[in-house]
Amino acid sequence: MSVIEHNFEVDPVQAEHEAKRTKAKRKRLFGGFAAAIALIGGTYCAYDALVGSHHVVTDNAYVGADVAQVTPLIGGPVQQVLVQDAQQVRRGDVLVRLDDTDARIAVARAEADLAVTIRKVRGLVANDSGLSAQISARHADEMKAEAGLVAARSDVEKARVDLARREGLANSGAVSGEELTSMRNAFNTATANLWSAEAARAQAAATRDAAIGSREANRVLIADTSVDNNPEVLAARAALDQARVDLERTVLRAPVDGVVSRRQVQVGQRVQPGAMLMVVVPIQAAYVDANFKEVQLAKVRPGQPVELTSDLYGEDVVYHGTVTGFSGGTGAAFAIVPAQNATGNWIKVVQRLPVRIKLDPRELAQHPLRVGLSMDIDVQVAG
């Protein structure tokens, strides 16, 4: 064996020693790794037991508010628009004015109709006395006709007796033919007068009945009422009130305190009832809807405190709120095209349920939020 070959020959003792050292080092590394895993697991369990189990967090949360739509209740051309987008307004501030010409004319017409109706009802009340007097006069006419009928009957009876007497003497020649003819004419005249008297009495009775009917019809219109509470007057006054309300509705005011958004109205535009002109967002009454996974909600209850941070202000501004309740369904259930799970190809998907959170009004006043902003939510579920 040469000298070179001897230098590269491995010593068996040294190789065995190196193998033992490598094995021991490997054991130490695996032991350290296992200890680290155990430490991490223990730390996580301790954190979950002491901290994590007392908090439920999500960043799937957004600011919301009960937005108030501004819509006209009557139609008409727009005369003035007094606000712009992003303008702060107070409840009752004038936002839009419509041309009120037609509404003012309607009020004037309704006032005139009310005045005419009041005079008409007063005339009905006055007519009651006049119609009662007419009934009395028609009764007197009826009594006069009755008296005329009695006289006519007496005349007929007298004419009949006179005619019968003359006819009895005519055969003896004691009564001339001319006198007999005169008696017959007198009888016929008396009979005709009787018929006329009977007709006059019937007419007088009918006239009296007509007067009674007119008075009763007039009294129906004013029965148990005064001029002020007569149905016709009340209807006319209601029409006037409606005309005045329509006149007031030509001025559109802010329904709540808030910020004007989505303004869609311009001067000269003719608007229709119910058309949305703009919205007023009550930012001072904003809330947050946090969309938690269903597996996170086992311990969440109404009344629990919540800490919130906004992407707008960062983590330096912390809001404090309270859980007020849960939505009636998940987002998928209320989707325009809800998922249909009753199919053969079904995969379970964890759903999210909106949780309503009320914010502190004082904190909102200091750091206003806007609808749609993202929030980070931490619900404290301990206790």
Summarize this, please?
The protein is of the alpha+beta class and 383 residues long. The protein folds into 4 domains: 1-41; 52-67 and 282-383, Efflux pump adaptor protein, beta barrel domain (Elongation Factor Tu (Ef-tu), domain 3, Beta Barrel); 69-97 and 250-280, Beta Barrel (OB fold (Dihydrolipoamide Acetyltransferase, E2P)); 103-245, Orthogonal Bundle (Helix Hairpins). The protein is built from 6 helices and 14 strands.
Characterization of this structure:
This protein is of the alpha+beta class. The protein folds into 4 domains: 1-41; 52-67 and 282-383, Beta Barrel (Elongation Factor Tu (Ef-tu), domain 3); 69-97 and 250-280, OB fold (Dihydrolipoamide Acetyltransferase, E2P); 103-245, Helix Hairpins. It is built from 6 helices and 14 strands. Strand 11 (305-310) and strand 12 (314-326) form a beta hairpin. The longest helix has 70 residues, at 101-170. The protein is rod-shaped. Mean pLDDT is 83; it is low at 1-8.
Helix proportion: 40-55%
Helix count, DSSP H or I runs of 4 or more residues: 6
Q: Which second-level CATH architecture of the largest domain applies? A: Orthogonal Bundle
Radius of gyration: 53 Å
Write the layout of secondary structure elements.
Elements: H1 3-7, H2 12-50, E1 55-64, E2 68-70, E3 76-81, E4 88-89, E5 94-98, H3 101-170, H4 177-222, H5 231-248, E6 251-253, E7 258-261, E8 270-271, E9 278-281, E10 287-293, E11 305-310, E12 314-326, E13 352-359, H6 361-366, E14 374-380
Antiparallel strand pairs: 1-10, 1-14, 2-9, 3-5, 3-8, 4-7, 5-6, 7-9, 10-13, 11-12, 11-14, 12-13
Helix pairs in contact: 3-4, 3-5
